């Protein structure tokens, strides 16, 4: 599946019929939009110097960072994460590319907690969303350890006390959220989200920071007609992965239904703090989306 085609197709579909609502620009020249890859590259260069104040300046005020060690929303939380995790971090990117609206980077990284355990550089894949002002609004790194590196980490952690179990089973929270969402009761569904929650939706093209932004989008998107058909749940600590099928009104209208999905949830204290769903279209569904893009919206 060509992810960039999917995301671009979705974004195009979402703006069909909206062009007439956008004010016409009359200025002769618009400011140049920063290159997202260049912004992410500059961020890594600064991070590698250990200057965490300068690194923090790359983030938008409402940015979200989702890492293997936790979820951080807003610059105050991100500043604490940088100070605790990144003073000696050294990143060696190998590749940069655009994937829809996201910058995707792969390479290796040296992290202090791994170095102490005798684990050298580990593979990473990172996603960035950079806004039009050149600020990072989302950063999501994923680490991949080899079997040998995993064994070293297990040995290093052998004497450490086990991590405390979540007070509420996170899978049960997500299951209850899906069941409630399928009833169409907006207020009860929205109550599952923490006040400082975030969501990364529209296949990585739209970042929502805070409960109000999530609510505003849902009211516009008419989530009362959304139906989720989960097939599988997996949990790793407070991170829940849900996979299955979903039926969405905006795609039903063009004959694309149902759609496979994969969604990430971060659950803390029985509340959803982060929601990151991605839609996985078949080639036939993509053709219908592209055909809808070529067809003028009916009035």
Automatic annotation (TrEMBL):
This is Nuclear transport factor 2 family protein. Keywords: Signal. InterPro entries: NTF2-like_dom_sf (IPR032710), SnoaL-like (IPR037401). Residues 1-28 form the signal peptide. Gene3D superfamilies: 3.10.450.50. Residues 41-112 form the SnoaL-like domain.
């Amino acid at each position: 599946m060509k992810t960039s085609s999917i995301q671009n197709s979705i974004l195009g579909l979402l703006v069909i019929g909206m062009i007439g609502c956008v004010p016409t620009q009359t200025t002769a020249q618009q400011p140049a939009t920063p290159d997202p890859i260049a912004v992410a590259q500059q961020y890594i260069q600064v991070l590698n110097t250990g200057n965490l104040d300068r690194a923090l300046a790359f983030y938008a005020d409402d940015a979200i960072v989702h890492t293997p060690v936790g979820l951080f929303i807003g610059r105050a939380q991100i500043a604490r994460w940088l100070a605790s995790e990144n003073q000696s971090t050294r990143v060696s990117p190998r590749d940069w590319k655009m994937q829809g609206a996201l910058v995707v980077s792969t390479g290796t990284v040296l992290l202090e907690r791994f170095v102490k355990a005798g684990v050298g550089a580990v593979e990473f894949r990172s996603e960035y969303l950079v806004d039009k002002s050149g600020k990072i609004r989302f950063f999501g790194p994923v680490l991949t350890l080899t079997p040998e590196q995993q064994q070293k980490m297990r040995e290093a952690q052998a004497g450490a006390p086990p991590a405390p179990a979540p007070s509420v089973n996170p899978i049960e929270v997500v299951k209850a959220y899906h069941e409630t969402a399928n009833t169409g009761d907006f207020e009860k569904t929205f109550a599952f989200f923490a006040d400082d929650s975030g969501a990364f939706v529209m296949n990585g093209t739209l970042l929502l920071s805070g409960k109000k932004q999530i609510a505003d989008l849902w009211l516009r998107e008419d989530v009362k007609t959304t139906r989720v058909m989960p097939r599988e749940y997996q949990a790793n600590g407070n991170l829940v992965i849900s996979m299955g099928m979903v039926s969405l009104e905006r795609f039903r209208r063009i004959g694309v239904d149902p759609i496979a999905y994969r969604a990430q949830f971060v659950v803390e204290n029985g509340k959803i703090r982060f929601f990151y769903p991605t839609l996985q279209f078949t080639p036939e569904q993509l053709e219908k989306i592209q055909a809808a893009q070529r067809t003028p919206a009916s009035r």
